[in-house]
Design goal:
The chain is an alpha+beta fold. It is built from 12 helices and 7 strands. Strands 1, 3, 4, 5 and 6 form a 5-stranded antiparallel beta sheet that branches. A two-stranded antiparallel ribbon has the order 2-7.
């Protein structure tokens, strides 16, 4: 039983021991000497005629233990030689650990404390640049600061209205209609600033933000309300139903707000004229193309 159990490991061990003996056959190291003794004793026992089988098995088991010990020594030698040939490999884990090591606690604390100040300075610089943009357009510093702060406030209030409308149960209620109107106004900051600024400041605001200050008619359909009212291509529509018009989207949005069967005040400026005038048109599409 013992011989069968150790047959394969013994064969592998003897092969390793034989390879090691061939490598260190001319060496006087303890490992080489032990291997030579094992091979000689095992060969002699196997060649003895009529040798006791039990003693031979015991001797093989003893040789197996010694062989396993030699294997461990061989592995240690291989590792030792590998470290000598590549000494940096032994320090690889330590070096990588040092590279990826976290900063010192004091340095990390200072970095965390400085981050809010860095963010505050960044936002303050952005705010000052925006204020300068409006002062370059002709606003005083106080009014420019008011516009910049109001822009941020508009965004916040728009989110508040949107949040309330989203969670409103009855989307047909009076409050829902009010929120829709507010969202329509706050979706375009120009609508809010038109009420916050006087006419001159508002024109400066439009110039500073690159917005259109007027809507010029491109073409008019014959027999349409705009044509019957005497409007022609090149004329400008400034306001519709007392709301400023900057482009076709503004005009279309305002047209839908007026109930049918009523007349609407439309502030226009004729081509070649610098003075605006107000005309009255029936509610509904005007037949204007941009």
């Amino acid at each position: 039983m013992n011989l069968h159990r150790h047959a394969i490991p013994l064969a592998v061990s003897l092969l390793l021991a034989g390879a090691a003996a061939a490598y260190w056959g001319s060496s006087d190291t303890p490992v080489a000497s032990t291997i030579r003794e094992l091979l000689i004793s095992d060969s002699a026992g196997a060649a003895a005629p009529g040798g006791d089988l039990t003693k031979r098995v015991q001797q093989l088991e003893k040789n197996l233990e010694q062989t396993l010990r030699i294997q461990g020594q061989l592995l240690e030698l291989v590792n030792d030689l590998s470290d000598r040939l590549d000494p940096e490999s032994a320090l690889g884990d330590v070096r990588h650990a040092a590279l990826g090591s976290p900063p010192e606690p004091e340095a990390a604390t200072l970095q965390q404390r400085s981050r809010p100040h860095q963010n505050a300075n960044r936002f303050e610089r952005m705010r000052e640049n925006q204020i300068k943009h409006f002062t370059d357009a002709g606003f005083s510093y106080e009014r420019a600061a008011f516009i910049v702060d109001k822009q941020e406030r508009i965004q916040y209030e728009q989110m508040q209205f949107s949040y309330e409308y989203h969670h409103l149960q009855d989307k047909r209620s009076t409050r829902a209609k009010e929120l829709q109107e507010k969202l329509q106004t706050y979706s375009n900051p120009r609508r809010v600033f038109e009420q916050e600024l006087n006419r001159e400041e508002y024109e400066q605001y439009l110039t500073a933000t690159g917005g259109r200050t007027e809507f010029e008619i491109g073409a008019i359909l014959e027999s349409a309300p705009a044509h019957d009212a005497g409007l022609r291509a090149g004329d400008k529509i400034i306001r519709y139903n007392n709301q400023r018009v900057f482009h076709m989207g503004d005009l279309r949005s305002q047209v839908y707000q007026v109930a049918p069967g009523t007349s609407v005040a439309v502030e226009i400026q004729r081509q070649g004229s610098s003075a605006p005038e107000t005309i009255y048109l029936p509610a509904g599409p005007l037949g204007i193309r941009h």
